[in-house]
UniProtKB/TrEMBL annotation, chain A:
Function in brief: The pyruvate dehydrogenase complex catalyzes the overall conversion of pyruvate to acetyl-CoA and CO(2).
Protein name: Pyruvate dehydrogenase E1 component subunit alpha
Record EC number: 1.2.4.1
Gene behind this protein: pdhA
Highest taxon of source: Bacteria
Catalysed conversion reaction: N(6)-[(R)-lipoyl]-L-lysyl-[protein] + pyruvate + H(+) = N(6)-[(R)-S(8)-acetyldihydrolipoyl]-L-lysyl-[protein] + CO2
Protein species of origin: Thiohalorhabdus denitrificans
InterPro entries associated with the record: DH_E1 (IPR001017), PDH_E1_Alpha_Subunit (IPR050642), Pyrv_DH_E1_asu_subgrp-y (IPR017597), THDP-binding (IPR029061)
Automatic annotation (TrEMBL), chain B:
InterPro entries: THDP-binding, Transketo_C/PFOR_II, Transketolase-like_Pyr-bd, Transketolase_C
Cofactor: thiamine diphosphate
Chain's role: The branched-chain alpha-keto dehydrogenase complex catalyzes the overall conversion of alpha-keto acids to acyl-CoA and CO(2). It contains multiple copies of three enzymatic components: branched-chain alpha-keto acid decarboxylase (E1), lipoamide acyltransferase (E2) and lipoamide dehydrogenase (E3).
Molecular-function GO term, any one: oxidoreductase activity
Lineage: Bacteria, Pseudomonadati, Pseudomonadota, Gammaproteobacteria, Thiohalorhabdales
Protein name: 2-oxoisovalerate dehydrogenase subunit beta
Pfam families, sorted: Transket_pyr, Transketolase_C
Start and end residues of each Transketolase-like pyrimidine-binding domain: 23-198
Iron recorded as keyword: no
Keywords: Oxidoreductase, Pyruvate, Thiamine pyrophosphate
Originating species: Thiohalorhabdus denitrificans
Keyword Coiled coil tagged: no
Domain of life the protein comes from: Bacteria
Amino acid sequence: MRRDLARQFLYDMLLARRFELRAAEEYAQGNIAGFLHLYPGEEAVAVGSLRAADPGDYVVSTYREHVHALVRGTPLGSVMAELFGRTGGCSGGYGGSMHLFDVERRFLGGYAIVGETFPVAAGVGYWLAMNGEPDVVLCYFGDGAVNQGTFHETLNMVALWDLPVVFLCENNHYQIGTEVHRHSAVSHVHRRTGGYGIEAHWVDGMDVRAVHEATRDALRHVREGNGPVLLECETYRYRGHSMADPAAYRSALEVNELRARDPLLTFREWAEGEGWVSATESAELDQAAERAVEEAVAFAAESPPPRDLHAGVHVRPLDLYGGRP
Amino acid sequence: MSQWKKGNDQAGLLAPARPAERLQVWEALNIAHDRVLAEDDAVFVMGEDVGLFGGSYRVTQGLYAKYGAWRVRDTPISENSFTGLGVGAALVGGRPVIELMTVNFALLAMDAIINMAAKMRYMSGGALRVPLVVRTPGGVARQLAAQHSQRLEHLFMNVPGLRVATPATPQDAYWQLRQAVRDDDPILLLEHELLYFREGAFDPEAEAPPMHAARVRREGGHFTLIAYSRMVEVALEAAEELAAEGIEAEVIDLRSLRPIDLVTLQDSVTKTHRALVVEEDCRFGGAGAEIAAALNERSFFELEAPVARVAGADVPTPYNGALEAASIPRPGDVAEAVREWMVG
Ligand SMILES: Cc1ncc(C[n+]2csc(CCOP(=O)(O)OP(=O)(O)O)c2C)c(N)n1
């Protein structure tokens, strides 16, 4: 492992953790509203996989996507401003937490209907394949999403037409409050692609290095024209499904057990042990992350709210009666 | 005021034809597809049996051989996902034309159409555009029974972010498909299964009116009949029946249900003072309700009577042929409704 990559992993995860915890605080203060789905515990998946992707690759994500956007490079301030519903947000304040988009970084969402990410990823992949482009689509989804028809419909199409898609399942064990063995006849998601002839692997989603390696291999596999790949990254979310969920359906014991394998702490320990970063450097990175989040909040708070209901982005709403207001 | 509000209708369905080629609706759509595929590499066509087979209504016939599998793609029976695939491709530069075999199956693609295609531009703050065209046959055809005989335009009319066009003539089908492909926003073309093999004048070089502009198919000073899709035929037949009795009905083909060309409707009502909407869809909560309400609101002082409606019966379409015919407006129903109002 290279030293700069180790530092990058560490910084990304520290930033992600701080960003999400701060978002929870801002929510409690009333600066963020609506549904807010946070990512603590799952950082290794976004960081490990996205750091393996090229800038040309596309990313399609769900409503739990803040960290995907951050790691992809969307400015922190514009993500926070979107959570605040302000014009400085990456969707101008019109999308909110569940609908982040960043065209420049090929970050395409942001979908709040479980299962929508699959066809969108297939569509981007179709376009890439049709035009012989070298890029790949990274498609994120939870364990709960694999029981949607779109999962199976899409796997069939991407396999049939050999579309360049890497599917990244963030198996955090829960579909809101329903544990994976209660919602899926076969709870090992990677075993559910067999019927479509898609290569699939289980990955330790608490280990950023493992996710990184697996994604790198998967991307290479796809770029070499061997067809789509699915990676099941087994991970865990520490918090409830959203701010509205106190997560009473699971024991403190379970949470603490998983917390002991915290992706951030285990990686820091490892990186310090290997001599890739010193304890002082770790602390510095953490402080830098804290400052960055502080600045993001300040930016969001100062950003004006959008005023135009129609914003010129709607499909001619005022012309609904043939141009008569 | 729109130059398209009346007349200028040589290319219309039942209007006197200018010396131009005559074609059937499916042929006009076929030519439109051919042109858009030839003009722009970003266009691709996708749907069940649109490729090798050539489309259930022959609309995509010959295109697969000409453009190959990537541009004219046969899909599995996965309506929601291949429509969603169209959304994804549209987001990154593609201009997909998705054919949903019938509007009944479009229900399975409602997530892709309503939750995705229609919302992406707005909820991305304008950063994303979705130049997606969804074409789908629908309406009551011949004894296909309840699951295959629906008119669902009211479902799509209520969706901000979508446009809904309803071509009734070969010329309009050609124009509106080409306009839809050029547009950067999602557009639904609701075609009628009984119209595909209707013939009409066709001039591929004629200049197109705006996609949403209504057209006056028949002029008349006594009554305004407002129709769209196949009901334009029914309204025109009713108008002939009424003309024999000295009642001159003006027949307007709306062509678009979202937006609605209210300008043309108001102009007509200003002349006739009475209007009736003819729709194949069920009356309750349908397109006619919107049209009538908008016209009542805006032309109240021009109207001698509230805007009336003749619509399909509020029942699932029956299989039995006689019952089926009774479930949708017939020319006689329309004429009778007009007579009632003319007496008043
Ligand atoms: C089609 C649909 N059904 C239900 C919901 C409500 N819902 C939102 S998130 C969620 C659970 C999804 O779980 P999973 O896919 O495992 O993702 P995670 O939240 O664990 O990241 C549900 C049921 C939804 N948004 N969309």
